[in-house]
Amino acid sequence: MGRAAGLESRPPMAIFTTTDDCRIYYKCHGPSASTKTVVLLNGTTQTTINWKPVVDCLADEYRVLTYDARGQGQSTLGRDELTLRRHVDDLVGLLDHLSLDGVSLVGISHGSGVAVQLAAIAGDRVRGMLLFGMGAALPPRVRTQLRRWLTIIEEKGLEAMIRAFIPVVFGRRFLETNAPLLEGMIQAAAKRNVGRYLQAHFTAMLAYQPLSEVARRAGVPVMVVSTDEDPLVDKGDAAALALLLGGKHRHLEGYGHALLAEDPSLFCQIMIDFLNGVPAPTGVEDSP
Questions:
Q1: Is residue 240 part of a domain?
Q2: 67 - beta bridge partners?
Q3: Buried b (16+ CB within 10 A) or exposed e, 54-74
Q4: Contact assessment for residue 91 and residue 84, using Cβ atoms and an 8 Å cutoff
């Protein structure tokens, strides 16, 4: 879908300041009068820029909120301790600031964790959740990977960490097909992130509770999507998260952790079908 006639080509962008003086950068897209709002929640190293294909799919019909969580992109780190609950409080504050309720949440990786925590403590504000790249557990291999990335930033800097990060989060087919573009991707990601902010982010994640200790049956439509080439999220852990939330689990073949970048069309189709209540394909599991 394209952008509706009459909408501004450049969506409003603004700063929301939290109680600890963290400056949260956000953008609102689409018709402001729409009663349907979708909030897009970044994964690690992502910024609002990464959501452009999704915004283009949604902005005719939905009001779309993109924002850089504290320590991401153009947002600052603030003074408070960086925790998953602090991220959720930031989002609640931003929703209050914009007078938004009954929102659909689309999360990638870390953003999925924020969505689950928000639904657990303020479920009345959530209309549905579509979660990519997240499971109920935080396995030892993920903690090991987080420590490795943290060490690389500390010893070799941000760009070196991004170089180590990309082969982990992208699937084999994407890496092979886009080999000539990878250097540009590395430089762009390094430019959009701040090393000490990512250090704080990885350090905080190591202290997060597993979502199995946080998730509650949501009482709204939920789908958790996993992929077979994702070394960070096991299929069984994704299915377990869907079970805890009372939702569905869909597993895809041939993709890594970063489905949005690897196949934007498929990502958007899954999202549009979910938002429109289209029945899931055969083989998608319903949780009892």
A1: yes
A2: 26
A3: bbbbbbebbbbbbbbbbbbbb
A4: no
**What do you get for the CA distance between the two ends of the chain, in Å?**
34
- The answer to the question of residue 32 being in a domain is yes
Q: What are the beta bridge partners of residue 29?
A: 64
- Residue whose C-alpha is closest to residue 111's, from 237, 14, 201, 221: 201
Neighbours of 217 (CB within 10 A): 15
Q: How many domains would you assign to the chain?
A: 1
Q: Is position 150 within any domain? A: no
Q: Tell me the pTM.
A: 0.93
CA 30 centroid distance within chain: 20
DSSP conformational letter for 136 = S
Domain that holds residue 78: 13-138+209-286
Residue 63 in any domain: the answer is yes
DSSP H or E stretch at residue 236: helix 235-245
What is the per-residue pLDDT across 78-121, written as a single tens digit (0 to 9) for each?
A: 999 999 999 999 999 999 999 999 999 999 999 999 999 999 99
Give helix 110-121 / helix 235-245 axis angle, nearest 10°: 20
Cα dihedral 31, 32, 38, 40 sign: positive
The answer to whether the beta carbons of residues 249 and 226 sit under 8 Å apart is yes
DSSP type of residue 69: P
Q: Which of 157, 87, 261 is nearest to 149 (CA)?
A: 157
| pLDDT bracket for residue 284 (50, 70, 90) | low
Task: Supply 196's token pair.
Answer: 């000490």
* Dihedral angle sign, alpha carbons of residues 60, 274, 214, 120: positive
**pLDDT tens sequence across 167-182:** 999 999 999 999 999 9
For residue 29, what is the domain's CATH number?
Answer: 3.40.50.1820
Cα 268 from Cα 206, distance rounded (Å):
31
d(Cα 161, Cα 165) in Å, to the nearest integer? 6
